[in-house]
């Protein structure tokens, strides 16, 4: 683990190449030009000027945000920073080869290139139909998702720690037999203590006092927005965010400010879409049609979702998240140059091959952001901070493997009889819950409830509320589940979760003695 001096130096160097540095430098030059008087006071005057104009707060937010993203590594070796466990690294590499093989097989079987330049008439057509992408319905019946939650879970069940003896594996009741350290129920209660019923929560009906509480939360939220402090914003968000303030506070939570250069970059990405057609475009289109378009809550946002994902597939800025991901961006070769490293290119340009349900990461955000540019940049931020961990194999405590182990551990602790009953009939609970976790519950909850859940994910900078909610749903359906005698019956009981009220269930698990 790097010491504080090394980390400070690293952080300073990162800030020097950030857009904020140039903005601060420009503002400082303005202050110098305006300053008249003692040169010896120049430094102090610049500091005071930056503080009064809000730039000091912007710098503090930038540093705080980067501190939250700090990755502790087992060594200074680059590979170990990505993933410290060798058997996990091998599993991720094997999974990536499998995904790429599936994509290349589809490409070969259908004689479709991975990428091609669009003819001029086609460029003009997609340009004119940019806001109506869902209207055009090409025949994609032969295209199939590269993988889905079930395929990914099957891969995870094969993970085995080579250092564990066979008799030690007998101690695991769950589907994943991995000794990952996860938090206990008591530790989670301490961490999420702000959800206690002693304090009113946004999204929980509070009787006659609800209107008063809502008005107070809006008033306090406006003060938090005015303070422009990420730490304060996260603390406020732990009790939920009023819908009218969610957009501004979510942006503040990430320190996101959409600049003119961001809007220019957005237009450049659109031009890449107009000029080139990618095979993944068809996978994106089909996924939107199979998921968001078939959902009563999200079908109206079909065009927005399609736009965001097409832009995302071309955005090479997304590649920066691979420095702290166990994954490696897939590569392809220019035709006729197979195996020649000089002709290898990352494909798709953002390094992400979408899976079945990927579009559901975008869909709920359409309720929050009206401006398509802001929508795009927020999605990119939440993906590169959180959602990428839900479909990569890693030992990170926020990764899908750890969340799955946490789910099984908590369910055994809270509902041992239920867990044993389901296990005995061959209905491992994780087989039901995994798709919820992998999609961050998008598509499985009412939109207002999902946004309340994501409020807490952002507030705590943690994906662990997903696992806690999954346990809470099983506990809530306990009586019916104990009466089941087959996996099909369990699936039927757990099929509809759209009536779930998120916060009361989380409170029931975190604050009730079992």
Summarize the structure.
With 514 residues, the protein is mainly α. Helices cover 56% and strands 2% of the residues.
Work out the number of β strands. 4
Strand/helix succession: HHHHHHEHHHHHHHHEHHEEHHHHHHHHH
The major β-sheet equals: 2 strands, antiparallel
- Class by alpha and beta content: mainly alpha
Low confidence ranges: 71-79
Number of helical elements: 25
3D architecture notes:
This protein is mostly helical and 514 residues long. It contains 25 helices and four strands. Strands 1-2 form a two-stranded antiparallel sheet. The two termini are 38 Å apart. The model is unreliable at 71-79 (pLDDT under 50).
Question: Can you tag this structure with a few keywords?
Answer:
globular; two-stranded antiparallel sheet; single chain
Furnish the topology, listing elements before pairings.
Layout: H1 4-16, H2 19-34, H3 42-52, H4 55-68, H5 78-82, H6 86-109, E1 115-117, H7 120-128, H8 149-156, H9 166-169, H10 185-191, H11 210-227, H12 230-237, H13 243-254, H14 260-275, E2 276-278, H15 279-290, H16 302-314, E3 331-333, E4 344-346, H17 372-385, H18 400-414, H19 416-424, H20 429-438, H21 447-460, H22 464-476, H23 478-482, H24 487-493, H25 502-511
Antiparallel strand pairs: 1-2, 3-4
């Amino acid at each position: 683990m790097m010491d504080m001096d090394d980390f400070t130096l690293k952080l300073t160097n990162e800030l020097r190449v950030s857009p904020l540095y140039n903005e601060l430098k420009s503002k400082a030059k303005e202050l110098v030009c305006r300053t008249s008087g003692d040169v010896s006071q120049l430094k102090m005057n610049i500091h005071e000027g930056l503080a009064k104009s809000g730039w000091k707060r912007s710098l503090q937010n930038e540093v705080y945000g980067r501190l939250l993203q700090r990755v502790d590594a087992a060594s200074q070796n680059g590979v170990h920073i990505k993933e410290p466990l060798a058997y996990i690294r091998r599993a991720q590499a094997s999974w990536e080869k499998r995904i790429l093989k599936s994509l290349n097989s589809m490409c070969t079987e259908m004689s479709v290139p991975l990428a091609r330049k669009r003819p001029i008439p086609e460029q003009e057509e997609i340009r004119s139909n940019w806001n109506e992408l869902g209207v055009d319905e090409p025949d994609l019946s032969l295209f199939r998702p590269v993988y889905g939650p079930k395929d990914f879970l099957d891969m995870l069940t094969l993970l085995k720690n080579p250092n564990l003896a066979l008799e030690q594996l007998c101690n695991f009741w769950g589907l994943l037999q991995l000794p990952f350290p996860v938090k206990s129920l008591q530790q989670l209660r301490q961490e999420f203590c702000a959800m206690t019923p002693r304090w009113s929560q946004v999204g929980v009906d509070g009787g006659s006092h609800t209107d008063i509480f809502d008005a107070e939360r809006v008033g306090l939220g406006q003060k938090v927005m005015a303070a422009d402090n990420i730490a304060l914003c996260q603390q406020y968000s732990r009790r939920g965010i009023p819908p009218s303030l969610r957009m501004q506070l979510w942006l503040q939570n990430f320190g996101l400010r959409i600049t003119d250069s961001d809007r220019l970059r957005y237009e450049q990405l659109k031009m890449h879409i107009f000029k080139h057609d990618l095979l993944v475009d068809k996978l994106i289109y089909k996924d939107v049609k199979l998921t968001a378009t078939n959902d009563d809550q999200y079908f109206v946002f079909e065009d927005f979702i399609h736009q965001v994902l097409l832009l995302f597939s071309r955005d090479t800025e997304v590649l920066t998240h691979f420095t702290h991901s166990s994954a490696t961006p897939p590569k392809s070769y220019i035709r006729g140059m197979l195996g020649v490293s000089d002709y290898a290119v990352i494909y798709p340009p953002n390094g992400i091959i979408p899976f079945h349900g990927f579009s559901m990461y975008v869909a709920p955000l359409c309720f929050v952001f009206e401006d398509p540019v802001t929508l795009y940049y927020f999605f990119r931020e939440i993906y590169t901070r959180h959602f990428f961990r839900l479909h990569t194999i890693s030992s990170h405590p926020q990764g899908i493997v750890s969340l799955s182990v946490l789910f099984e551990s908590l369910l055994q602790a809270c509902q041992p009889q239920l867990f044993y009953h389901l296990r005995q009939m061959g209905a491992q609970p994780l087989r039901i819950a995994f798709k919820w976790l992998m999609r961050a519950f998008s598509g499985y909850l009412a939109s207002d409830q999902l946004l309340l859940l994501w409020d807490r994910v952002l507030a705590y900078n943690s994906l662990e509320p997903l696992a806690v909610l999954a346990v809470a749903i099983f506990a809530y359906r306990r009586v019916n589940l104990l009466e089941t005698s087959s996996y099909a019956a369990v699936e039927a009981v757990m099929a509809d979760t759209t009536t779930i009220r998120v916060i009361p269930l989380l409170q029931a698990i975190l604050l009730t003695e079992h």
